[in-house]
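pasting for the record
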Amino acid sequence: MLVDYYGRPVGPFVNKPTKELGDATSDIWQGVFQEKMENGSGPVFMNCAENTPEDTEFMMKSFYSEGDTSIVDYLQQYHIDLNQSMIEFGTYDYALCGRGLDIQLSGQTSLEGLYAAGDVLGNVRGDITSAAVFGMISAENAAAYTKTVDFEEVENHPLIQESMDLYNSLLDRKVGAHWKEANSML
């Protein structure tokens, strides 16, 4: 739940979040972090004190599945227990958002066969709600598109093979940055 320094909810939407509903404050009130800093009542903190251990474990796994591996690594490295400690929470500068791929209603970009959803979009806003909706729409349309592609033609395409070789070399190497570091930088 998003709270102030004293543990009081910053949004009017929930007093006690549930795993199913969470705290939608930042999705609905997108300027909450900046406004709280500007009016002197910030920063905003993420408070997970009421989470069950199972909910916290689920959240940590969700961070991984969303590509936020650096968050989990940081919490582990500094022995931060989210059930015991609030952590400052925020968002990216809005100038960085809204610059990305434009999609059609099907979720397809201007490149045939490439579908997208989430923060990479330039012509759709709505944060997690939009990402979830367009994620499903894009996935369904991408799956339908794959049924129209001759995979023998694609399978041996030199650009695809070149990309596969590069990614496999990164994943398989024994020296250098771990793939998690590259993932967090992306």
